[in-house]
Design goal:
With about 500 residues, the chain is α/β, with parallel strands linked by helices. Helices cover about 40% and strands about 20% of the residues. The strands form seven sheets. It has a seven-stranded mixed beta sheet, with helices on both faces. A five-stranded parallel beta sheet has the order 9-8-7-10-11, with helices on both faces. Strands 5-6-23 form a three-stranded antiparallel beta sheet. The protein binds nicotinamide-adenine-dinucleotide.
Length: about 500
Amino acid sequence: MAPPKVYKNFIDGEWVESVSGRTFENINPANRHDLIGIFQKSNQQDIDNAVAAATQAFKSWRLTPPPRRGEILWRAARLLVERKELFAEGMTREMGKILDETRGDVQEAIDMTFYMAGEGRRMFGQTTTSELPNKFCMAVRSPIGICSLITPWNFPMAIPSWKVMPALVCGNAVVMKPATDTPLSMYNLVKTLEDAGVPRGVVNYVTGGGGEVGNRLMTHEDVKVVSFTGSTDVGRKVSEACSHNFKHCCLEMGGKNCILVMDDANLDLAVDGALWGGFGTSGQRCTAASRVTVHKAVYKEFVDRFVERARSLKVGDGLDPTVQMGPVINESQLKTVEEYVEIGKHEGAKLLTGGERLSGGEYECGWFHVPTIFGDCDPRMRVAQEEIFGPVVSVIPCDSLEQAIEINNGVVYGLSSSIYTRNVNRAFQAMRDFDTGIVYVNAPTIGAETHLPFGGTKQTGNGHREAAVTALDFYSEWKTLYVDYSDRLQRAQIDT
Ligand code: NAD
């Protein structure tokens, strides 16, 4: 058998080993004997080298006209299209989700790259009038500097693309760090940017642990911007670290998203939505529908159908095209899921299906869990409040739309929510009163598109939005320009 490929860091336009001399293994969660590659276990010195390279490269990249930057992104998008199938397969191997979903993940990166390529020729600013004669006013976007991009494992190419593409088109240089479970997909993205002609040092890629590498990325004094997607616990640390020297900081964190099924809902549609929202990516999406609140008038019928469909889901290796749900990411995540199943049982939630890991046969070497549904949940139970990040859905009965909205809003997170109803008044009331950053009507809590703002409220985010034109607000600094061509001193607010 051929030895596993050794992947290196990308610093200053060169593929280099970590100065630490250490490496780690990237393995397949569906089969831990499948070694995908060896990656660099980097240290602080690697980050310092990457930041130094980015600092140098920023000097000319910030002056490169945005349409030229956009053309490089355009070439990268075209290459991603050509490489889509290869990258999707690699992603399924390294993080487990089924091929349909990893194709979607790569497609999201393609969409974001084309979208931001187009921003190279827009990047609109503002012009407006002046209160004084012979004076011109405008505001333009300026690049900020070096951006640290820290990403999770569940969307290993899409999420890095949400960060790197707007950062680049705005004229920043970046240092990127993937989660240790999924370094291959970010490697593929960075290699594609290199092949598309990004100048040396503008994009740097350093692999390694959150503690050592991640910590340096958010504390390095030359880093001006930190964009983080991951858990709320780590996000809080990032926020604190950035506050000392006022780094710009964008946090996209956990979720406990809810689907509401009203008594007038199309139940077939609602069951489809709950199944996809709850068990897509094995429930490991920040937008996963891990709660379903159902009106008591249709509760029994909905739950019976939902349970039946969940039982019929085929679990296995995501590379098998007949499989509908893959493994969870690692042993530690599987243990977390098992712990929450026990918590749910002790809290008195009714285990309707699942509740155990899969072992033996094709499951022996991977981290698989049966799709699990708890019924009759009280909204205050931990299984209905805390992010589990696995294939576990808590179903909560309710009496009215008002109560359902209260349940939806009664968690610390605020990412995504959804309502199934055929009543337009109810739909609009939910759109107005749900306190999440994203709301779906007659669709599950997942399905974001790249040209619309993405992000959450409360402990999911810190007020920024990724994707869409809103991403430019984070990766650029507004610079307001006043040009006085009156040839005399004019005093705003005084010379009226
Ligand atoms: P995580 O917080 O454990 O890790 C995220 C990243 O932070 C990884 O690259 C990790 O190496 C790094 N990191 C860990 N400790 C660090 C530290 N002390 N300093 C700096 N960096 C550190 O999250 P995860 O397990 O990779 O991902 C799952 C979480 O991500 C879930 O909570 C999920 O909801 C969230 N998520 C949120 C969104 C969103 O857009 N809101 C999207 C996807 C995932």
